[in-house]
């Protein structure tokens, strides 16, 4: 699928890929943009050269959520969604969010403006969230007669703040999201892109085997009780120790040199 609403920039030296949502004026998501995001993030599962991903957006708004006009067309029986999507209008958003969450390499969100509704849900699927001081976050669907997204929001801010945001449609500043632990770092608007790439490059410098196994272990264990989750992590540690890259990381540490990883 040739992207129309995304820009894909790959740094072959570092293995960092920047995926930029570019759908003026406010990066509202329609069936096409959901499908493009799903396709791109699914493709990283078949690509060993990608070591980390930055999810960014062009313009002053990160993502205004679902495209209301596209929703109106779909409800009226028009639009370009297929029959399956007509029966289940939530299918495309769910597939998109799943693709981002289960991406085999870490995804760093760089949020430079408002992320609302489906935009905030998309951000919540990322592994590390950076935001500029200009960013705002909200689940504003209730303002336009639809619902959805509490499931994702409460993972970021906890159930009771999430309920307040969900029922009122309020927008929350980046600094407050940081206080809730939802954001790893708040930057100035000018520094956001550089800092997001710095974080992605720091991840990409690690053993690609270790990073992918770590991501897989998190996905399998994060919602389980401790007595079930920790054995899964130990299982992945044992798997990793059988790779040559694991021995190389330890040898480089002891010899005080940079490791050379070979995906072995």
From TrEMBL:
<dbReference type="InterPro" id="IPR014748">
    <property type="entry name" value="Enoyl-CoA_hydra_C"/>
</dbReference>
<dbReference type="GO" id="GO:0006635">
    <property type="term" value="P:fatty acid beta-oxidation"/>
</dbReference>
<dbReference type="GO" id="GO:0004300">
    <property type="term" value="F:enoyl-CoA hydratase activity"/>
</dbReference>
<dbReference type="Pfam" id="PF00378">
    <property type="entry name" value="ECH_1"/>
</dbReference>
<dbReference type="InterPro" id="IPR001753">
    <property type="entry name" value="Enoyl-CoA_hydra/iso"/>
</dbReference>
<dbReference type="InterPro" id="IPR029045">
    <property type="entry name" value="ClpP/crotonase-like_dom_sf"/>
</dbReference>
<keyword id="KW-0456">Lyase</keyword>
<comment type="similarity">
    <text>Belongs to the enoyl-CoA hydratase/isomerase family.</text>
</comment>
<protein>
    <submittedName>
        <fullName>Enoyl-CoA hydratase</fullName>
    </submittedName>
</protein>
């Amino acid at each position: 699928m040739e992207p129309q609403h995304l820009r894909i920039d790959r740094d072959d030296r570092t293995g960092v890929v920047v995926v930029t949502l570019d759908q003026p004026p406010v990066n509202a998501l329609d069936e096409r943009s959901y499908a493009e995001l799903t396709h791109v993030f699914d493709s990283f599962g078949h690509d060993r050269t990608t070591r980390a991903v930055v999810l960014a957006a062009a313009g002053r708004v990160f993502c205004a959520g679902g495209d209301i006009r596209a929703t109106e067309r779909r409800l009226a029986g028009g639009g370009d969604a297929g029959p399956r999507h007509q029966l289940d209008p939530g299918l495309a958003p769910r597939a998109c969010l799943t693709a981002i969450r289960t991406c085999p390499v870490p995804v760093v969100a760089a949020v430079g403006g408002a992320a609302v509704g489906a935009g905030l849900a998309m951000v919540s699927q990322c592994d590390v969230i950076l935001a500029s001081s200009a960013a705002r976050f909200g689940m504003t669907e209730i303002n336009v007669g639809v619902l959805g997204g509490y499931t994702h929001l409460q993972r970021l801010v906890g159930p009771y703040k999430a309920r307040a945001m969900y029922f009122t449609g309020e927008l929350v500043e980046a600094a407050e999201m940081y206080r809730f632990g939802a954001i790893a770092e708040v930057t100035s608007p000018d520094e956001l892109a550089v800092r997001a790439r710095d974080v992605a490059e720091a991840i990409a410098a690690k053993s690609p085997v270790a990073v992918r196994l770590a991501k897989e272990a998190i996905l399998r264990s994060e919602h389980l009780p401790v007595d079930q989750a920790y054995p899964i992590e130990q299982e992945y540690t044992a798997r990793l120790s059988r790779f040559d890259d694991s021995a190389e990381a330890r040898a480089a540490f002891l010899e005080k040199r940079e490791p050379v990883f070979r995906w072995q």
